[in-house]
Amino acid sequence: MNKVLLVIQREYLARVKKKSFLIATLLTPLIFPAIMGVFVWIAVNESENQSLRIIEVFDETGLFFMESSDQYAFVSSDLELEEAKKMVQEGERYGLLLIPKINLEDPKGIQYFGAENPSMSLMSYLEGALKRKIEDQKLYEKGIDPAVIKEIRTSVSIQSITLSEGGEEKINDATVNYALGFLAGILIYIFIFVYGNQIMQGVIEEKSSRIVEILVSSLRPFQLMMGKIVGIGAVGLTQFLIWVVLIGTLTSVVVGVLGMQMPQQQAIEMASPELAQAAMPDTEVGQILQVIQGIDFVSLVVSFIIYFLGGYLLYGALFAAVGSAVDAPSDAQQFMFPITIPLIVAYMGLFVFVLQDPNSTTSFWLSIIPLTSPIAMMGRISFGVPFWELSLSVGLLIGGFLFTTWLAAKIYRIGILMHGTKPTYRILWKWIRTSQ
């Protein structure tokens, strides 16, 4: 056990003391908000400085009057169609909207001409505007005044409240839950890949430099493998915890500066939660704060640590086995494919199934199967997961880690001392069967 601890200490300190680690750890919590701020600044300036885009409307029906917006101005054309197209080609018009004589029951044949490919937002805007115009025209033909319909239409906003088993009510927001699930799932995915590759690269370097032959003379290959996996995993965990502290500190400072959570409000909450709830302004900002306050960030962070460690240890053992079997990173590509497939499935499932419907059958199985559960379950955590599902997922993840470690140890024990051999899947299977 002492030898394993020495390997862990060596791997941990060798990476933590690097300047690149310190720079990445300290700057990352600042880089992402800065990048988001830059994008927001660019978007705001672009919207302010962007010139109005003129779109020629060639309406053969004479029924459609397109209303201009802040970004697009629509001009009814009295030119020939070819002349209007030429104006678009020469840059005098941003685009041309051709509305032929169509059947309102089946409006087909509408075309848009532009000198460049249109954006999705422009096409959505045009389709939405034409849809409303056609609906108004159909209402008018049936003797219904469209203005009356517009007066009757009302926007509705539904506040979502979750009832716990104890009867406690918590305001939630699907957008906030989506964002938290998205961020947590992506971080798990990135961490597994980054630190898993560090394990593989470290094993390959030690093997190619023959340092491993000296190391295995004083400790068993399994001890070396576990020390390297746990040591590098501790580096990732340290980095994540530092990020949590820095982000929490920065968030508290920003919230305090903006006056979202003043000391007076904290005192009111401690004395009388009901009074604080009543004092909360009935505004969008107040509702967002209520949603954020209802999130159990402690459980979220603890779950992230558990699934990060479980997923990393499960895949880290496989990365170590691949690194021990090859002599160069280029030779590892063929063995990386079956390892990355479950990660890619989990990554795609996070967007297609988990974040869209966290309680679906597919989301459940993705969060239970050990190879996909670290990413999928973190996508579900913020929405709320029954305790038995969480327990089952963690238990199977631990079992999966033990199995992959046992499997990887058999390959590692032989492969770490093999040189000049191009391993295949048949050779790896032979090592697994013959290794004791």
Could you give a short account of the major beta sheet? 4 strands, mixed
Shape: elongated
Model regions low in confidence, pLDDT < 50 over at least 5 residues = 258-281
Secondary structure category: alpha/beta
Beta content comes to 5-15%
Organism: Algoriphagus taiwanensis
Protein name: ABC transporter permease
Keywords: Cell membrane, Membrane, Transmembrane, Transmembrane helix
Subcellular location: Cell membrane
Q: What order do the helices and strands come in, and which of them pair?
A:
Layout: H1 2-16, H2 19-49, E1 53-59, E2 72-76, H3 81-89, E3 95-99, E4 111-114, H4 120-141, H5 146-152, E5 160-163, E6 169-172, H6 174-208, H7 211-215, H8 221-258, H9 263-271, H10 273-279, H11 284-293, H12 297-325, H13 333-354, H14 361-368, H15 373-381, H16 387-415, H17 425-434
Parallel strand pairs: 1-2, 1-3
Antiparallel strand pairs: 3-4, 5-6
Helix pairs in contact: 1-8, 2-8, 6-8, 6-12, 6-13, 6-15, 8-12, 9-10, 12-15, 12-16, 13-14, 13-15, 14-15, 16-17
Key terms for this structure?
436 residues, alpha/beta, two-stranded antiparallel ribbon, 17 helices, 6 strands, 7% strand, elongated
